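We now fix the convention by which a protein and its fold are recorded. The integers have meaning only within a learned vocabulary of local backbone shapes. A complete example follows; check for yourself that the lines match position by position.
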Amino acid sequence: MNTAHQQDRAWADEAVRRINAENNRSADTHLYSVPLPDHWGVQLYLKDESTHRTGSLKHRLARSLFLFGLVNGWIREGTTIVEASSGSTAVSEAYFAQLLGLPFIAVMTRTTSREKIALIEQFGGSCHLVDHASEVYEAAADLASSTGGHYMDQFTYAERATDWRGNNNIAESIFGQLALEEHPVPRWVVVGAGTGGTSATIGRYLRYHCHETRLAVVDPENSAFYPGWRNSRPDGGSPAPGTATGGTATVATAAGLPSRIEGIGRPRMEPSFVPAVIDHMIQVPDAASVAAMRHLREHAGLHAGPSTGTNLWGVWQLIAGMIAEGRRGSVVSLMCDAGDRYAGNYYNPEWLDAQGLDPEPHEAVLREFFQTGVWPA
């Protein structure tokens, strides 16, 4: 073994140690019980991923991607790390790059919230902004090539960088925290489709451990995941048994338009998206995501971002289906990040007006649902 190779290996070994030490210092994220009427016979749990050091679910993914890059020999001392992101993954990767003393460049659209850009820069990263979400892939690959760096490519590697069998993944954590609950095996786990990695990990974990739990994935307007999943299914993506049918009509998708819900929804079917492990998908209007996000704060005092609202719009429909069929049990979803990252947009009435997003009609739906336990048609 030559000296240069020995130095590379020694640096990589130290980098892996630092990342594992960071993980060892970190506590697990909370699993909150959200209050629901007792007579519904349903418990809802939200796993609060906003409590990670970098403030979102993507902290787990960034850790896995760095370890994956290190053990494959793609990341070496001095390597410039480049990522295409809608913001949260870039925040987390900037943190881990800083931990290892590596330069970091995030490629994002100009519409990314100012709060996320500030966090990336706070962790020592820089931002390269493009006009359209479809441009981030080529721009990131070009930057990695021109700097001699490594394009992390979360949209390709998210589904394989995390061990879906267990090994401290999010699914294992959820089931461990549910162990003493009335219904420790939930009827549904509900997540969004961002890279596709979270749904792939959870779906595989459920199948590997033979749980009866079904996986539902929510997707915002103008995203390629929902139509791609629907077209891949022999039943055409018809509603799963035990789900509400009112209010789940397909939202019109305008080709070429970006998702307006940061962190989820993509202009293409990403390589990390695995349709076959998903039992049900629900397409969610963007204004409904905002409504559910705001309703969560009013109902449970949890201040979350818009992708959490997308999750909850699907959650409430699934719970309505359980109530209608008299099925008791639990449902689990994720609080992906905190609302303070979105003060300038999704919590800003002027920004919502400029985007043509009116959450009030959808908030009325939620009020009626909580009064009646029935999802309005």
The first helix runs from residue 3 to 25. The chain has two domains: 25-53+163-372, 56-158.
